[in-house]
Amino acid sequence: MTLPNSRFDADLVRLGAHHLEAFAAANADVLLAVLTSGDGFEVASYPPNQTMTPKIAAMSSSMQALSEALTREAGLAKNRNVIIETDSGTVLILGLAGTQRLSLAIVAKSGELLGKLLWASRNLCKKLETSLQK
Amino acid sequence: MSIASELKIVFTGPMGAGKTTAITAVSDFPPVSTEMQNNDQQSFAKESTTVALDLGQIGLGDGTVVRLYGTPGQERFSFMWEIVGRGSMGVILLLDGTSPTLLADLKTYTEVFRRIAPDQPFVVGVGRTRPDDYTQIDACLRVIESLQFSAPVFSVDVRKREDVLLLIETLLATLEVSQPEFAT
Which of A14, A108, B58, B166 is deepest in the core (most CB within 10 A)? Predict the structure, then answer.
């Protein structure tokens, strides 16, 4: 297991990597899972050390921030997630509750049903939130 | 003569140059902001940083509406430079006069945004300069000349509305002269 980012507490990075690895093992069509800081840095990812991960981390944090700005302007409650569907796959971006403003980006092949992926991803968020509060 | 009724201009520059502050100083409404906690204190020690864009707006006396877009400063968000810069009618480049990378930043952002918004007017604002010291301004002008284009360079305090308006008005005046098709 690698620790990709020394900016963050080592326990946070280890914990994130552990949960992401377990999530990917249980969801075979997941290509990449990245735990990202609010300002676009990779905290942990699975699989680790992928070339595209830093870009996905930065882009997902931008999209999360934009979606928050949009829902704020629209007078809606805090947004829960961003869903991007393509012909060949899905990207989910989910915000984690808590003060660290972390978010989770999931990239999956189209074989995964969106509802199942969303359900599993939300469960992962809850696990991460619970673990981080301890 | 006045500029066409709706314009998009872009504020860009490195992290900490004052893009969000500048847009906030002049916008007619509280800008749309995408500020997040800054975890990169080594690059610039400040609390928060823009991760997607800023969006403000200023109405001019003649009915022209100028939409003010701000980019993130860090290179890892360079994909946003392309998205935000596309279709802009001019670029205001803000720089930190105390930064050791002042001239390198000028060169980098100029080259990138000259590619994204070719042939659009460019105005440079240098902040945190000492009063009556034109060393950084002169150095910036030499770099711009070496890049074989021209752009006015001002010493500015982006917290002051009048300084930011000076940059915007200079940009619009340049636009009127260089691209009269946008004048009504």
Answer: A108
